[in-house]
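subagent[fold] <- orchestrator: predict structure for attached chain, return tokens only, no commentary.
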Amino acid sequence: MKSTSPGQSGRRLRSGSASGTLERTQENQRLIRASMKRWQGLNRYGRSIGRGLSEAELLDKVAGETGASKTLIRDSLRRGD
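subagent[fold] -> orchestrator:
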């Protein structure tokens, strides 16, 4: 059985072309924001005791889970606020 990250839904974002670039669709942005919210929740206790992940590390976790670039993740989070 393939192991997954904690809370990983297993959904991948929709690719826009054969090169694997992701579309900036509302669905993809929603999935990116959901992934970041999940990782922030998992990180909350670690932060409270001074051992949590940095924002850059959270960005890496979301990128690994969704397959999105860091630029697309930052853009999606900025648009979601």
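orchestrator: received. Logging for downstream: The CA atoms of residues 5 and 47 lie 19 Å apart. DSSP finds three helices and no strands in the chain.
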